[in-house]
Amino acid sequence: MIKTFLFVLLSLAWLLPSNLHAQVRKVTITKESSKWQLRVNNEPFYIRGAGGTVQMDAVVACGGNTIRTWGIENAQSILDEAEKKGLKVMLGLWVQHERHGFDYNDQEKIKNQLEGFRIAVRKYKDHPALLMWGVGNEYELEYSNTKVWAAVNDIAKMVHEEDKNHPTSTVTAGTNAEKLNFVQTVLTEVDIYGINTYGDIESVKSVLTNGNYSGAYMITEWGPNGHWESPKTIWGMSIEQTSSEKAAVYLKRYQTCIAADSAQCIGSFAFLWGQKQEYTSTWYGLFNEDGIPTEAIDELTYCWSGAYPTNRAPSVDSIYFNEKKLAPNCIVKANTSYSFELFATDLNKDKLNYTWELYPESTDLKSGGDAEMKPPIINGRLKGKNQAQVQLKAPLKEGRYRLFVKVFDGEKLAYMNIPFYVEPTNDSDRIHFKEQTLKSFDEE
Q: For the whole model, what pTM was predicted?
């Protein structure tokens, strides 16, 4: 009798929905009274997103509600953790790039890519943390074969066939009239347009308006000015904004470029929720290498929750070079001593700790966010490197360098870096160097 009962239970088990499947949430995107509305289980949902998959507790604490991936690596654990934290996930399907060697004339490769994604969609489509699918990211960067657009649309069509509960999106590197035309005429299966933009974020709305784009969109990466669009030294290196300048930029861009367009923009993903080496080790990360939050996190907290955290991050005000305010294009002599002094403040009057580090300028420079190697630290050239004022003995070798300083209040940090050039020690070489660098700067 007991064996018969167990057999019946096992036989019927496949008919019973799993706990996970029973919790699947239907997500829709519709236009309601001239306004695009994302809904989860018919409840309005505005994306307050973090671009990254780390520090999920911090996302929640700051008032965020969504995270973004670029591919399906570790997708199960990411989705599971997000669900536990009450977060949604824009799950990326990494469409291969032509600049990485993928051939969009090769039909077999295109088919294999699509079928691989079909397996992933079937596997994750019923996860309760899933918000939408991100079909590709910046696949049109440095490309020539426009067939990639049709391949992306075919993938989005497949997603719709396999998953009736979640919308599709795609992401381009910025936007312009040409890209927008492909989005409107070829990507007919894509529900939401995602745009990665930095210094150009203020022009996004005008591009969409001039191109008569009437659909829903997201700002899928945004933050400080990109290294490619920042001012440069006369020796050609980009000048990074301080953490305080970046914090102000996050606040302004959220208020005037994201939240201001309530009709079409359904939310955004601040970049990068984590840390990476890209041009420098501090350019894009909202945290440092040890996972410590930076100033911009406070501004995102205000944008997402309407209130600042009790403990505010310190701020950097200015830096002095040999007791004078630092001017652009810092050029020093080899093996000669100089002083740098950072002036910083803290709203909570916390005790501030300083850390100075010296590096050669990075030469492992890539494009499109491809992985880069951090240059090795240079030791033995800094005196007082844990104080507000540091003594630098310039390196012996001519070349490009960058001096980093971090200010820590015990919980959060502020930072800045100073690119500088060690000029040749020989007088004739020094004159030649200055003539050449000034000439190249004028040509730009």
A: 0.91
